[in-house]
Amino acid sequence: MNFDADVLVIGGGVTGCGILRDLALRGIRGILIDRGDLNSGASGGNHGLLHSGGRYASSDTETAAECRIEGEILKRTAPQAIDACGGLFVAVEGDDEGFIARFAARCAAAGIDCAPLAVDEVRRSEPAISERAIAAYAVPDATVDPFRLTIEQVADARRLADSLFLPHTEVTGFDIDGGRIRAARCRDTRSGEARIIRARQYVNAAGAWSMAVARLAGCDDVRVLWSKGTLVIANTRLTRRVVNRLRTPGDGDILVPGGTVSLLGTTSDTVADLDVIRPTPEEVDRNIEEGSVLIPALAHTRFIRAFAGVRPLLLPTGGDGDGRKASRGFTLFDHVAQGLGNFATIAGGKLTTFRLMAERTGDLVAARLGNREPCRTATEPLPALERSSWTEPGHSARTWFAAKNPADSILCECEMVPKSTVDAVLEMAPGAEPQMPLRAIGVRSRIGKGTCQGSFCAIRVTSHLYDRGTYGGREGLGLMRDFLAERYKGTRPVLWGPQMPQAELAETLHCGLLGLDLIDARGQDGEPR
Ligand SMILES: Cc1cc2nc3c(=O)[nH]c(=O)nc-3n(C[C@H](O)[C@H](O)[C@H](O)COP(=O)(O)OP(=O)(O)OC[C@H]3O[C@@H](n4cnc5c(N)ncnc54)[C@H](O)[C@@H]3O)c2cc1C
Q1: Ligand 1 mutation pick, 8, 34, 149, 275, max ligand atoms within 8 A of CB
Q2: What are the angstrom distances between the C-alpha of 417 and each of 127, 275, 398, 472?
Q3: How far is residue 400's CA from residue 516's CA, in Å, rounded to a whole number?
Q4: Does residue 205 have its Cβ closer than 6 Å to ligand 1?
């Protein structure tokens, strides 16, 4: 199947989705593609911290100010995706006193509100903080739901300009003629079917993969450093606010509350291969060891999962490849010097600054198309949609209790996701998705995100999908197996204490009862391994 649009945007992370909506607000119809689904890259594997800028105030005033401004804009325009819980920077005995003393002035230089707090007062409101705390400041940090942000941006772009999102669509090459890209050659990553997409402008927003996509068009000016970060999720909310360690950034020094859980991270290790990104037990240990200095309860908390993502950081000429020191700024490459007039790459940046990245890209692309509409994303609220609110912790449960419908049984008990939520998610399936994978349902709801990590709900949701005819034949079993394998990647590095019997029970169910270890990814019978 072939497609045509004004603009092809490559990469369905928060940046690509932001660009799709920015263009749609200017009346420009785009097609967004991702070789996986929405948020398959860093946008689905991050800390969810809407930075006040405090984290970068001591090293990079410009990025810190950018985060402050963009954070405030998002709080106004997309409040439904943000928990403005506030943040703390806390130092403990032994931390660098010079760093502590300079912090408030560095924040002031970036325009960040930063109020000193009495340590006793902080420990009264956040009892999980160590009694070894010696200094604390309050900053306007917040948390952000990147899944809701991307889903709602794509939905809004569709409403405004009939823009389209095609999942499982990987760009594999470009047809170039006369200094312009004429078509993108793509492949459906599930069926292998070839797709041709023709557009007037092409945007590369492929995050850590942007260097590879630029090279497909013959451009070698994009240089990205791959900085892997691993995080670990505790099964309770330990603090009301985001808690940052008041020191030079290091492993395990930020605890972000995420609804009912807490996310501890992150590590930073430069990697050379993007295909083998998974959290390791050693990285989990590093996070917990460092994190428990600030929040002692982390040493004996139950962790339900670890996950890893790759930060797409810009590698400056002469940079030494250290991800901690690399800038969190971004660059828009127009590729004119590379001989192409209708291709651009946006790379670097943060989740917090994606809107600004999309604005700069939208300005360039709109000008190239002769469109004079200004960017409106800084003022135009992102419409909050009921059907995208299933990503919010507790939302399904509240809706279910309010509806009081006994026929609407609960499929995921940890996150209280009922049948009606799964049905609602299926109705907003992107593009042609006859057999929406469990992972895609998980991205748009909270199935599999609780303590059991899909052990029970994967079976119940799959059964429901067979009952309603969404799945047929044996492929549904393969999709369930893929989902559980992906969940297991995250539970494996935290298998100790109470998680261990949970995993053994899951193994008995999935392998002993269902024989999922004997089928391949497409649900076909295979030889026992
Ligand atoms: C561990 C970690 C923690 C972080 N924490 C925070 C935080 O708390 N706050 C914050 O502001 N930022 C944070 N970040 C940074 C932030 O997550 C990223 O800057 C942001 O998500 C990047 O979004 P993106 O859309 O540019 O890239 P991505 O989200 O990586 O999206 C790129 C997409 O391109 C797709 N793609 C790749 N190749 C192709 C192809 N050939 N064809 C089609 N599609 C393709 C991929 O599948 C992917 O979905 C963190 C990052 C990491 C890794």
Answers
A1: 34
A2: 31, 32, 10, 23
A3: 31
A4: yes
- C-alpha distance from residue 52 to each of 47, 140, 229, 281 (Å): 14, 5, 20, 31
Contacts of 399 (CB under 8 A, 6+ apart): 418, 420, 421
Segment 102-152, tens digit of pLDDT: 999 999 999 999 999 999 999 999 999 999 999 999 999 999 999 999 999
CB 29 within 8 A of CB 222: no
Q: Please, what are the domains in the chain?
A: 3-42+146-223+327-368 (3.50.50.60), 83-143+225-314 (3.30.9.10), 386-518 (no CATH)
Residue 169 has what pLDDT? 97
**What separation in Å is there between the alpha carbon of 469 and the centre of ligand 1?**
34
Residues 6+ apart with CB under 8 A from 269: 227, 228, 229, 283, 323
Ligand 1 in contact with 311 (CB < 6 A)? yes
What's the number of CA atoms in the CB half-sphere (13 Å) around residue 89? Answer: 30
In this prediction the pTM is 0.95
How far is Cα 335 from Cα 157, in angstroms, rounded to an integer? 26
For ligand 1, atom 44, the nearest C-alpha belongs to: 34
What is the identity of the amino acid at 24?
Answer: A
Structure tokens at 51: 């930075």
Cβ of 208 closer than 6 Å to ligand 1, yes or no, is: yes
Residue 15 in contact with ligand 1 by CB distance below 6 A = yes
Cα-Cα-Cα-Cα torsion 477, 430, 388, 35, nearest 10 degrees, comes to 80
Alpha helices in 110-199 (DSSP H): 119-125, 146-161
Whole-angstrom distance, CA of residue 486 vs CA of residue 17 = 24
User: Tokens 């649009």 correspond to what residue?
Assistant: 5
Q: Where are the beta strands (DSSP E) in 334-428?
A: 343-348, 410-412, 417-418
Cβ of 391 below 6 Å from ligand 1:
no
Over 70: is that where the pLDDT of 468 sits? yes
- 274-312 b/e (C-beta count within 10 Å ≥ 16 → b): eeebebbeebbebbbebbbbbbebbeebebbbbbbbbbb
527 has a pLDDT exceeding 50: no
* Mean local confidence (pLDDT), 37-42: 96
Kindly state the tokens that stand for 52: 């006040």
Cβ of 55 below 6 Å from ligand 1: no
**Does the beta carbon of 10 sit less than 6 angstroms from any atom of ligand 1?**
yes
Nearest residue (CA) to ligand 1, atom 33 = 11
